[in-house]
Amino acid sequence: MNRFLAIIDATSKEQLGLLTIHRMPGALPFAGKYRLIDFALSNIKHANIKNVAVFPYGNYRSLQDHVGSGKRWDLDRRHDGLFILPPKNMAVTSEDMISFQRMHEHIEHFRRSTQDHVLITQANIVWSIDFNSVLDNHIASKADITEIICEKKRLKTFIISKSKLLNYVNHYDAIPYNTLNDVVRFAPSVQINTYVHQGYVRYIKDTFNYLKGNLDMLRFDRGTQIFLSERPIISKEKTAPPARYESHAQVTNSMIASGSIIDGVIKHSIIGRDVTIKRGAVVENSIIMSNSVVEANASIHYGILDKSTVIKENTVIEGTLFDPYVTQKYQVVTNQSHINVLHVASEANPFVKTGGLADVVQGLSEHLAKRGTTVKVIIPLYKQVKARFEEALKLVESRVIHYGDEPCKINIYQMNYHQVDFYFLENFRYFERDEIYGYDDDCDRFALFNHAIVEMIDLFGELDLVHLHDWHTGLIPLIFKQRHKNPPKTLLTLHNIDYQGECKLDILDKLGIDYQSDFEQTLNFLKTGITHATKLSTVSPTYRDELRYEYYGKKLTPVLLKRERDFYGILNGISTQLKPEHDTSIAKQYSEKTLADKLENKRYLQRNMDLIENDNAFVIGCVSRLAEQKGFDIMLPALEQFLHKHEDVQFVILGQGNQHYIDRLEELKAHYPTRIALNIGYDATLPNYIYAGADLFLMPSRVEPCGLSQMIAMHYGTVPLVRQTGGLADTVEAYDSVTKQGKGFMFFNYDTPSLLQALHDAYTLYSKDQTTWKKMMIRGMQSDFSLIRQATKMLELYRLII
Amino acid sequence: MRKDVVAMVLVGGRGTRLGPITKYKAKPAVTFGGKYKLIDFVLSNLSHAFIDTVGIVTQYEPHALMDYIQRGSSWDLDVSDGGIHFLTPYTSFEGDKWQKGTAHAVAQHIRFIDMYKPKHVLILSGDHVYKMQYEKLIHTHEESDADVTIAVFKPHDDLSRYGVLDLDQNNHIIDFEEKPDNPKSDYASMGIYVFKTRVLNEMLGNNFNHANDFGKNIIPKALAENYHVHGYVFNDYFRDVGTIQSLYDANMDLLDHPEYLKLHDYKTQPLYTKTENLPPHHNMASDAVTNALISDGVLIMGRVHHSVLSSNVTIKAHAFVQDSVIFSNVTVGEHSEIKNCIVLEGTYILPRTKLVFDDVTVIDNETLWAMGGKRS
Q1: What is the DSSP-derived secondary structure letter of residue B75?
Q2: Which residues between 234 and 293 in chain B have a beta carbon less than 8 angstroms from any beta carbon of chain A?
Q3: Do the chains contact at B277 and A245, CB–CB below 8 Å?
Q4: Cα-Cα-Cα-Cα dihedral of A172, A178, A181, A187, to 10°?
């Protein structure tokens, strides 16, 4: 009795999107009336553990509210009991798992405890497990650490003696491991005992697992493994009357919590407390959280409705098991299926492109149009565009507007391209120039662009939303607010925050904007946009979170923090055509079924780039701008050591940029002329040769808002090695040596040793275990990074805004 | 600690007319509406009126009730000053104190009331179905400066079952008739009284040794002695579920007239109850449940129509339950058919049992045993 204390690790945010905006994963409702943390707490209660510490990250109000004093789990005690130990720095980022440093912040808790062993488990696992048996097993094994795993899943659940744990915790700043997970994976002389848990387990790390886990409870064989009468799952007491079926209720295999009133059709769904499903409504394969209302004739398939969502009459909501439609708390979803949106950007493919923005604007607008949205796009009419497309452009409007004292003639041209109406704003003085950007008066140019769009917004007919991209459009929300009583709703997407459009305040005078106290010494387009847009988004969920820190957010962090609850992260997509089976440019087309043909491409790459032709060589590919943020400062020293250590490693790079890096690459190439291929300049070679021919794709970026190359590499079956940041963290699932699952290699600390360790792991796996490596390639090739997915998510966000 | 109002809840009656339903428990502990007990109504009403000093006057089979109420935390009545007190019959200097009527039961615990020196004493019955705002009742009592206020209602059925009260224009009570053949008024007593503490002491003092009932003895006496007796007219839903039929009817009212008790409307005095740790009910059937109240922990594989199911009930495949009230932990076996039944806690109905009746019938393991192998 009282042999161990428990730590419930709630430091990870996981990938639960909208669901974790207001709460942490442990506080997520499950199976109608539980919260995820109830499983951990109930298992702990049944093991008679009396000392429990919960380590939350960030906003733990919802969790605190739920667990209270811990009375329901017999943890309201004179000695020991339940402790919630918050981070010292509330703005601390969510972690993979609880770090030793985090524990050290509350070292007093461990010193005061009397128990000899420590159980560390997660707040978001659905299972019923006897921790006492695990402890017995751990003691009998005489191992240093026992890890509980289930089938192919690691659960970040460990038992370790308190003295050994404190050894790590006390020296957290001197040891190379941050977490127990690191110790298990990397520490050489530590004895690990593995305890395989038999029975149902689901680790709720994303919306798919969340939906699937809930729906699993509808299967008799699964549900009965969790809700055992002798080991009940205990939750906070709430009173609601019995669920009420009215005369038109048609319910098939569903769980319905008390207080709900059912008069519609429910199939294979989980209905929380006090939900109303009105007559004629259809709910299928969905989770409806408490207090939501589904009005008459609405239909929901594969949806997750957060608390108090209202689905208006006749609204259709359609998700998939792998990508459920998720609403936000208190969201009202209307039946407006047809949305009119105007995109405003500085560039768009196929007209003008200097960077990724042009691709995103085109891909997104095209796929939104395919999904039934009426999409219009407006960009400035640059000289280059006019030269190439003059024939196809149709003049639709000419007006003179005033910018300061200066009258400006604005012509608007239009052209339909792939179901999207593209508009071009022409002004001779500001846009009839040789370059797209880079003029001293760039801010004036785009201020006029913004001003003219607001002045001429009537041209675009009825609009539900104006979708803005980057700093070039940042003044539009403010100008709208000043000139319109009911300004259109705006969504500002941040693609690149390195450019913010900073200039003198006199631009506001020219626009006739009143700015007494609102502004500082200078005008910042992007900051103004962030402050005034209805909602904000950026290009990946992780980047959205990272922007809260000065390290990533530059000067925008304070203003972004203010808008935190209006800020969303939606991953960019790539074309499903970008796959080796469709690619006619490469040496031999291949797919996951003809994986062996990838070798032809490797040979072609080696031959073409004058590398040693060796089928077994480990070819590392890289397609990147040669810039600091892409990680070259840690990459170059790592490569140097790595190439030196392993004879059979080759490196191919395509890129352009900083001369300093080019020089260093040349130096390296001089050392290993037959093992390094440099392609400097964007047109030096086709990137597809590298995507198709390399074994490993290297992308150790310091900052990466989204990143597309890693997705393309995965489509091409080239295993990515990335730093855990931004879109890289959202797209690459890290390989785990215990379960042999994952899609690529990942490291967190931005330093050469961490990158080297990851390179070493990749190399070892490649040379020792080709079977696992091939499985990884296939998992990458099967990933869904499609634009369709991005457009679907964007449409969900549009519906949330309008 | 001084309190304005102390409530005395009478839960001692056996409720013989409920037959086997009250065999092992007092009437207030009887299941109602799936997940409630009758006592929930009074305790919730008290909680909403912030009356937190409550004496539960027990006698008959108190264990189930004590176990259920405990310290009253489910109704937020577990306060440190006041709270819930179980008042049981006891032996004293003056002899055994076995209860002889409602007033007699309260009289025994007059010292409990005195402890709090309240202005008023609210006398309640633990087995009524209604949502009342007691603060309004107390307010009327104080405003009219009555010595006694009685809550009255217009029964939906035969008045001759009730104590009928005759009210004048100012709602003063001028006459009382116990179960009259030709009632003079439409109003009947609800058995809910507010006494000025002084008046209660006067009327109950020195009356320990003979049978004494509020309805039969105290009120007529108060009228006779010219105390100011006031009527508080209650127009909402009220049922005294003293019989099997009335208990059944009140359950069916939940299905047919949700507007009566508004269980799903939290704005009007939500009904609190002690909840167990149970998963939501799991309806594994398809399209087979209509017009029903289903509690947590229920598993449905068969059909249910127009019925109220308590927690942890299992309806096996091809079973059909209609127009019935099923208490907790009941299993209805495959191909069984049930109609017009109240099935008591823990009853196990074997497969292919036919329990179809025209009149409401109470079913428990003992009746099933007695019926033997009557299968369809």
Answers
A1: G
A2: 258, 263-264, 266, 270-273, 275, 277-293
A3: no
A4: -70
Which H or E element spans position A394? strand A394-403
- In sequence order, the β-bridge partners of residue A271 are A256, A288
The answer to whether residues A749 and A642 belong to one domain is yes
Contact present, A247 and A231 (Cβ < 8 Å): no
CATH class, B5-261 region: alpha beta
Residue A291 domain flag: yes
- According to the model, what pLDDT value does residue A645 have? 95
- A238 vs chain B: nearest CA distance in angstroms? 7
d(CA A300, CA A456): 39
pLDDT single digits (tens) A411-426: 999 999 988 999 999 9
Kindly identify which residue of chain B lies nearest to residue A250, measuring between CA atoms: B287
Give residue A576's pLDDT band: very low, low, confident or very high (50, 70, 90): confident
C-alpha neighbours within 13 Å on the C-beta side of residue A103: 26
B74 and chain A in contact, CB less than 8 A? yes
Query: Based on the domain organization, do A607 and A692 belong to the same domain?
Result: yes
* List of chain A residues whose C-beta atoms are within 8 Å of the C-beta of residue B253: none
CB contact under 8 A, B275 and A242: no
- Reported ipTM: 0.90
Q: A441 and A292 share a domain? A: no
Domain coordinates in residue numbering, chain B:
5-261, 282-371
**Whether residue A619 sits in one domain with residue A546:** no
Residue A145 lies in a domain: yes
Query: For the whole model, what pTM was predicted?
Result: 0.84
pLDDT at A90: 64
Q: Does A368 map to a domain?
A: yes
Do the Cβ atoms of B118 and B124 come closer than 8 Å?
no
Using an 8 Å CB-CB cutoff, list chain B residues near A308.
none
Give the CATH fold of the B282-371 domain: UDP N-Acetylglucosamine Acyltransferase; domain 1 (2.160.10)
CB contact under 8 A, B281 and A243: yes
Domain count for chain A, please give it.
4
A237 touches chain B (CB under 8 A): yes
Give A74 to chain B, closest Cα distance, Å: 14
Q: Which helix (H) or strand (E) holds A148?
A: strand A145-150
- Residues A257, A108 share a domain: no
